[in-house]
Amino acid sequence: MTDTTALEAAAFRRLLRHLNQERTDVQNIDLMILAGFCRNCLADWYREAAEEAGVAMDKEQAREHVYGMPFAEWKARHQRDATPEQLAAFQAAQQRHG
User: Which residues fall within 8 angstroms of residue 20, CB to CB, at 6 or more apart?
Assistant: First the structure.
């Protein structure tokens, strides 16, 4: 019998690798507009899961795990300022789903 948790963990690791190594061009705001979550959301969910398991973890530790490096470093390397069009699309998406 296959361990579902191991499969889910492998899929999560592949998602992180995809977002942080293969698709660094995709900005968090674009993920939020299109999918309703971003890398920071993944870090929050990871931290919440750690807390539920009794593992102490702060926001920066969770982000470092998800980004594969300190968040400030990833941000300096890959994150661009949001354009006015992205900000407008984000606000519209928030209104549709908020």
Answer: 39, 66, 67, 68, 74
Structure tokens at 11: 């899929």
Give exposure, 53-92, as e/b (b: 16+ Cβ within 10 Å): eeeebeeebbbbbbbeeebeebeeebeeeeeeebeebeee
pLDDT in tens, the chain (98 residues): 579 999 999 999 999 999 999 999 999 999 999 999 999 999 999 999 999 999 999 999 999 999 999 999 999 999 999 999 999 999 998 888 76
**pTM value > 0.85:** yes
What domains does the chain contain, in order, with CATH numbers?
4-97 (1.10.3340.10)
